[in-house]
Specification:
The complex is a heterodimer. Chain A is mostly helical. Chain A has seven helices and no strands. Chain A starts with a helix and ends in a 12-residue tail after the last helix. In chain B, helix 2 packs across helix 10, helix 3 packs across helix 4 and helix 4 packs parallel to helix 5. Classes of the chains: A mainly alpha, B alpha/beta.
Amino acid sequence: MRRQVPLALCFVFGVVMVLIEFSPHPYSKFLYNEVINWSLIITPFALVLGVATLVQTHWIRIRRRAEYWQYSFVVFIGMIVMVTIGIPFGPSHKAFAWLFKYIQTPMDATMFSLLAFFIASASYRAFRARTLEATLLLVAALIVMIGNAPIGDLIWNKIMPFGENLPSTARQWILENPNLSSRRGVILGVSLGVISQSIRIILGIERSYLGGGD
Amino acid sequence: MKPKSACLLGLILFFTCKIITLAQLSEFSSEEFRATDEITAGKPPAPPTNIKATDKKNDDGTHITISWTKSADDGNGANNVTSYNILRKSPESNFETITKTLIKTGKTDYTDDTVKRDKTYSYLVQAVTASGTTSNSEVTGAEATASWFHTGKKWLFLSVVLFSVVVIYSIYHARSGKNIFIRRIPGLEAVDEAIGRATEMGRSILYILGLGSVSNVATIASMNILSQVARRTADYETALRVPCNDPIVMNVVREMVKTAYLEGGHPDAYQEQDIFFLTESQFAYAAGVDGIMLREKPAAVFLQGTFFAESLILAETGNSVGAIQIAGTDKEHQLPFFIAACDYTLIGEELYAASAYLSREPMLLGSLKGQDYGKLMIFAAIVVGVILELIGVNWVTTFFDKVSN
C-alpha cells in the first residue's frame, strides 16, 4: 500500500498533465493551476525541514570545533538578521531591500565574476592541442574569439588583401553550422530521454525516486 | 379660408411635420445603433459586405474573429473610406464600439479577444470616411466556445503517442529476458572506479544534484543515479555527502538513500546529516559547495542534474582538489564546461539512460531500446527530408513545421 498509492497517483497525474498540454479548454487550465498550487503547499513544510538541517549542520560544526567553525556563526547571524527583518516587515521593507541590494547581490556578483578565471583555467586545459579533437576545439575557439572581437575584422582587413571581414564570417559559420547542428543533436537526444524517462515513471517501472528498488 | 388663417394653418402643419421628424430621429437614435453616433454630414460611403463572425478554433472560448469584404468606397473617390470600426452587441448590452483605435483600410479581419465563453455576440462593421461619415454593414453573430482538443497539435500528439507505444513495446518485449545490447558509456563505467577510489583513499564522495526542483525530469534522473551510487557506497561504507539546493529534493533524497542503505544491509552506515540543505540561492549554493570541496577534499564528485552558470565554478573547484569528476546535464549550454573540467561527462540522453545502465534491469534497458528506435525514426526523417529538400520537394519540412507549431 505504501508503494501502490504513490504509484497510482503518479500514473493518474502524469497522464492528466500530458493531456492538459493538448487541451486549451479553461477546465484544463484550471486543473493545471490547481495541481501547481497543491505542489506549492508542500514547499513551506519542506523548507522548514531544510532550514532545520541547515541549523543542525552548523550547530554540529560549532560544537565539534570543525575546521573553520567560526564561519558557521556568520551563517547564523545572516539567517537571524534576514528572518528578523523579512518575516515581520516583508521583502519590500527598506531594511530588507537594503540587505538584498547591498549585501546579497554583490556577493552573488562576486561568485559569478569568478567564472571568468575558471573559464580561463578550464580553457587552458581543454585547448592544449594534444589530440586531434583538442586541436579542432582550439582552432574553432580561436576563430570564434577573433570573430567576436571587432578588432579581429579590423586587423584582418588591414593585413589581408582578400576575404573582407573573414573572421566574423567564419565565426558566424561555425556557430550556425557545426555548433548549432551538434546542439540540436543533443537537444533531440535529451527530448527523447525525457519522454522515455517520463513513461518509465508514469508506468511505475522507474521507482527509485520512491526510495529503493522494488 | 382667410389668408391669415391659411398662414396659421400652414405654420401649424410645418411645426407638426418638424416635431414628427424630430420624434422619428430621436426614436432611431434610441435604437440599437444609437452608439454608432452616425454623423450625417456628407454622403455615407458604401457599407462593408459579407461580414462573418466565427468562433476561433483551438482556444479557451475567449476569441471571435470577424471578417468582411471591404467597402466599395475603400480607397475610392470622394467617399473614400479611411478606416473601419467594429461594434458588438452582447446579451447584456446594446451595440457598442470594441475597437480601441480605428482599423486601417486594407485590413479585412479583426479578432475580438474580450468575449466570454459560451455567450453569443452580434457584430457589425462600420466604414468610416475622412469626414467622419459612417455606414454600417449587416449584423452577424457567433457563439464563443472553448475547444477540448487543440487540433493544431494533433501531429505532435500522434508523434508522442507513436514514440510512447514504441517505448512501451520495447519495455514489455524486454521482459522476455532477451539480452539487450547497450553501447558502453564511459562516464557510467567510471562510477565504480570513482567509488572505489574514494574508498581506498578513505575520503568522501560528494554528490551534487544541481539547481533543479523535484518536478524537473533531469533532477529525477539524477536521483535515480544517486540511488545506484548509494547502494555501492553502502556496500563499501564510504561517506556520501549530498548538499541540496531544494528542500523537497533533500527530503526525497534522504528517503531514497536511507532505503538504499537498508536494502544494502548497512542501515547503521546511513548518516542522515550527510544529506543536507544549503540554500536556494544559486551562487550562495555554489559558494557553499565550493567550501565543502576545499575543506573536505572529496575523492569523487558527481555533478548530475540541471546546472546553469555555476557549473564551471563547481567543476573547476572539484578539479583543483584532485577529485575524479563525473558530470551530466540536460542543459546543452553547460556541457562544454563539464567536458573541459570533468573526467567524464554524460552527454544529453546518457543522463536519462544512467539509471537503466547501472541497475541493468531488463525493463529499464528495454526503454533505452525504445529510445533508440525513436532516434532512428528522427534520423530517417532528417535524411529523407534533406534528400527531398535537395530535389525541391518540401512536404517533409512543411510537415515538421506544422508539428512544431
